[in-house]
Amino acid sequence: MYSSTAGVGSSLQYLKKFPEYQNNQLLILAGLEMTIAYELLEARRRIWCSIFWKRSNSATKFAVNKKMEGIAFDAGTSIVNAGKLLNQYYEEHEINDLDREAWSQIIMSLINANCWLKEQFGVDCKSKQLKIDL
What we know:
The chain has 134 residues and is mainly α. Helices cover 80% and strands 0% of the residues. The protein is built from four helices and no strands. Helix 1 runs antiparallel to helix 2 and helix 1 runs antiparallel to helix 4 (100-130). 29% of the residues are buried.
């Protein structure tokens, strides 16, 4: 498992334990974005492990790398979207002292996941971003 996958997964688990999770649309949407990011990163890992890199021809390696670039970029986008939704929730609602530690665990796990994603797949994300037509 990638560390970015673990970070998103732990952030999602902390979010699901947060008292307002089931009652607030912003938190539910943030949870969905985290789930998407987690599933994408797991799919990337499965794709990576599914081929024999030494025996594969260059066309196969190229196609698999392009697919993995897109998956990393989309996972990063979902992490950023989840962060925006959590920021919006924080601005609109007051977090009491009892929930502050749980909230900080959610945020720190998501920040770490984003940092680890950039560290592990930053080149992939930039490659995909440069190819998007504006």
